[in-house]
Amino acid sequence: MLAAERKRRIVEYVRQYRTATVAALAQEFGVHGATIRRDLAEIEQEGVLKRTHGGVIMEQWTHDEPSFYDRRNQHLEEKMRIGRRAASLVEDGENIIIDSGTTTLHIATHLVGRSDITVVTNDMNVAVELRDAPGIKVILTGGELYPSSYMLNGMFTDHVLKSLHVEKAFIGTPALHPQHGLMHPEALLVPAKQGMIAAAGEIIVVTDHTKIGKLSLHTVAPNSAIHTLITGTEASEYDVKPFQERGITVYRV
Description:
Layout: H1 3-17, E1 19-21, H2 22-29, H3 33-45, E2 49-52, E3 55-58, H4 68-71, H5 76-88, E4 95-98, H6 105-109, E5 117-121, H7 124-129, E6 136-140, E7 144-146, E8 151-153, H8 155-162, E9 166-172, E10 175-177, E11 181-184, H9 190-199, E12 200-206, E13 218-221, E14 228-231, H10 237-245, E15 249-252
Parallel strand pairs: 4-5, 4-9, 5-6, 9-12, 12-14, 14-15
Antiparallel strand pairs: 1-3, 2-3, 7-8, 10-11, 11-13
Helix pairs in contact: 2-3, 8-9
């Protein structure tokens, strides 16, 4: 078995059982423990698994998501591709929601130059990106400003979202799990995302490959609420297959 295939199957094994020892993996794949330890070290660098004493567990999200400045340059080229593909799904004359995030920001970038589109957003970065786009009307939800991300959130945000109906909502997420769906580490940010989903006829999730398979504390929405998933080619067929099997249209760009 090639090393790349073995590592893929190690991830699959740990996703199924949530934890594994080096000895168990060595026996499962018929290799020396040193080979497994080397594989685990390489997989851990990708952020998928976390090594423990004598074994490995699935990586978990904590309550402390990195700031906008820390996140905006991570996987930048992939996020740009995702934003371009997502923007191509917007039709002239549509009303859409763009969620706050470093990936969703690139949707706004690729909408510049389009016409007759209304964008509702809780992200001041998105609004600034579109401020000089004459064919695009921008509506900010209002709400409490989160200075680390330029996101608006809270009671005012939720109230505005409840009054809206749009054709499409583009939702970002720090965690997308094949069983548990859209997830988030911060309870206070869940209602706004749920409001965006409830306001839209079509839900399009945009996320880089590192978020797929992640677990987090709170479920935002089940996978049954998602119509389309856009991620990078960095995501493997194994990563996206569970979503395709649930009827979700998947674009790897």
